Backbone:
């Protein structure tokens, strides 16, 4: 098969976007659009191989197609899974929750549907599953199964103008399904993971492959004169036989040649425009309504333009996409995609326990090095041999092996055997819940009991309070001394919930209302309920920056609700989420402009400086630490000492 120049570079760019989205989401919040570039390239390459087979042999040649697809996907997977499960068993067993179902569904090529059925969220990374990125492989596997039928149907009606309408219609149906099934404000994982809703790029790639194949078959080649040198004063001219598909009308040939030259002029500019647009989308995109109601469709269309303009004959875009580092990333993109996510999750979870406060750049650098080593081993020792010979010869080189093959097989056998032992242990003894989940459940129960006791104590005073409420003025403005726990109401998310014991120890008597997945949107209603019940205290701690962005308007609403005689303590967030820096900046700006009764507690800096005190997810504080509470206390002390 002809190797299309430039496709490796396109895949390399898409891979960069995806990796940055996974590992540095703040820098590349729209990096998930890179998946649609990959889908379009994959649809194009698979379909064009099928169309060429149909064109040359009249059949799909499934006896060759199926083994090639299996060899492309599974040898690398069968190395990845035992190694990763073993490493997790040795280093961070929280990552093995639900691992058995993950492994089974990955191997059967349906992980994406398992994740949908189980309610897993691709866009929520509090407890990331170690194999979650393989939803992509599930979609590809299912596409590999159905695309031969699509190619066969198109070939049967190849002499009509309707063949390309099959993939175009399926693309339109898929895009419409995503648009209609997406629910604004809800988790979009269903429409993002679904093969039915996320096949626009795959189908457009099929359509592009069809157009290119039919164009190459129909485009006439003008007869060329094969010149000869002068010999004894005569000139010998060899004129090749004219193919039957060359039109007799020379004007028609000239017109097609003109159109081809026009296309070769326009195509690179079109491709460059598409590339710039895709980069803008990956840098500025968000997981919002636009993405799932048009954004992914637009990215897929742009991907078609990028591919078509790059692979066009004599396109100057090929020079850009042949840039060696970029092309190398694309050439090994499958292995890099497989390994980067689990390696990053493991490094992010374990390194802070080895090194106090490692910077994010160190975590990324170690992830990159380990990923490169794993990819190199997988390619040289497993994938290359499987593709060139057979999957079995990776383990047992039985056909005239040389010494190098034997050594490689022995090394792979040892690695795979050791990894398989650890993998079995991990699968058999995988925990049902993460330590963070267990901690949060225990904290929630403790907090619920404390709230019941507080309610029982307050009921004894309720009658007297009702009689005196009309005579009692609003809470007196704090003395701006260090508050005691009975002066504080705390409202927060799971980070505050994980820190509730520490808050109760540092501020005895504090009133805490914290829950998993709570965002700033829940705060106004909770504050209003406390105001109506007369239970909102003089100091209000708000820790809701983990699960959503925060706007100045939302803070104004809360500030107005609590009134000028209460102090609002804003706790910022820590974690690798695209919205957390936005929320933290909003909190910082608001505290700076409302210094009279607003305090900022910098939990982000405290967590970054003490990563060894965080749980495996790098977000929640570990059980038994009061780092969160001490951060709040320190912020209040500094604010009071500043004379407020």
Residues:
């Amino acid at each position: 098969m002809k190797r299309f120049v430039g496709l490796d570079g396109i895949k390399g760019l898409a891979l960069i976007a995806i990796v940055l989205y996974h590992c540095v989401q703040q820098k590349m919040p729209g990096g998930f659009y890179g998946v649609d570039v990959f889908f379009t390239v994959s649809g194009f390459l698979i379909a064009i191989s099928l169309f060429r087979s149909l064109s040359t042999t009249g059949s799909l040649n499934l006896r060759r197609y199926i083994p090639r697809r299996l060899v492309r996907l599974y040898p690398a997977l069968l190395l990845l899974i035992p190694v990763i499960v073993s490493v997790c068993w040795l280093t961070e067993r929280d990552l093995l929750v639900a691992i058995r179902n993950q492994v089974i569904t990955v191997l059967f090529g349906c992980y994406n549907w398992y994740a949908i059925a189980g309610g897993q969220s691709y866009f929520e990374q509090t407890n990331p599953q170690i194999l979650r990125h393989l939803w992509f492989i599930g979609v590809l596997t299912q596409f590999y199964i159905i695309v031969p039928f699509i190619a066969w149907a198109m070939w049967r009606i190849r002499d009509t103008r309707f063949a390309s309408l099959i993939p175009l219609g399926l693309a339109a149906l898929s895009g419409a399904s995503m648009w209609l099934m997406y629910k604004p404000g809800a988790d979009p994982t269903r429409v993002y993971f679904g093969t039915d809703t996320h096949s626009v790029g795959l189908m457009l790639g099929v359509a592009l492959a069809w157009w290119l194949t039919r164009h190459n078959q129909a485009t006439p080649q003008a007869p060329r004169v094969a010149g000869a040198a002068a010999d004894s004063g005569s000139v010998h001219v060899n004129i090749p036989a004219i193919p039957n598909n060359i039109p007799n009308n020379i004007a028609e040939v000239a017109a097609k040649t003109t159109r081809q030259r026009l296309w070769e002029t326009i195509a690179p500019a079109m491709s460059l425009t598409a590339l710039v647009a895709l980069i803008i989308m990956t840098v500025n995109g968000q997981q919002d309504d636009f993405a799932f109601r048009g954004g992914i469709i637009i990215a897929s269309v742009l991907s078609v333009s990028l591919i078509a303009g790059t692979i066009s004959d004599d396109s100057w875009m090929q020079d850009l996409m042949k840039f060696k580092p970029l092309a190398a990333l694309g050439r090994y993109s499958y292995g890099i995609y497989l390994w980067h996510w689990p390696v990053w999750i493991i490094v992010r979870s374990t390194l802070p326990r080895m090194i106090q406060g490692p910077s994010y750049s160190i975590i990324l650098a170690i992830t990159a090095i380990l990923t490169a080593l794993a990819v190199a081993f997988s390619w040289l020792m497993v994938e290359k041999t499987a593709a060139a010979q057979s999957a079995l010869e990776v383990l047992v080189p039985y056909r005239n092996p040389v010494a190098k093959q034997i050594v490689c097989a022995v090394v792979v056998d040892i690695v795979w055997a050791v990894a398989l032992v650890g993998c079995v242990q991990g699968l058999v003894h995988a925990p049902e819940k993460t330590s963070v989940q267990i901690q949060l459940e225990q904290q929630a129960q403790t907090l619920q009991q404390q709230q019941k006791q507080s309610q029982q104590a307050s009921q004894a005073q309720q009658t007297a309070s009702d009689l005196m409420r009309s005579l009692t003025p609003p809470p007196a403005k704090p003395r701006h001394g260090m508050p005691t726990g009975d002066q504080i109401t705390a409202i927060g998310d799971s980070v505050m919930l994980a820190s509730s014991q520490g808050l109760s120890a540092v501020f005895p008597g504090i009133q805490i209302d914290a829950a998993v997945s709570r965002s700033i949107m829940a705060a106004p209603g909770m504050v209003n309920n406390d105001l109506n019940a007369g239970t909102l205290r003089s100091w209000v701690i708000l820790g809701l920056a983990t699960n959503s962005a925060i706007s100045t308007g939302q803070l104004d609403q809360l500030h107005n609700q609590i009134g000028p005689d209460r102090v609002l303590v804003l706790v910022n967030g820590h974690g690798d989420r695209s919205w957390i820096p936005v929320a933290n900046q909003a909190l910082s700006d608001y505290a700076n402009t409302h210094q009279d009764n607003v305090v900022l507690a910098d939990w982000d800096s405290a967590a970054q400086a003490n990563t060894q005190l965080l749980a495996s997810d790098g977000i929640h504080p570990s059980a038994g630490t009061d780092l969160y509470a001490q951060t709040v206390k320190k912020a209040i002390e500094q604010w009071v000492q500043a004379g407020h």
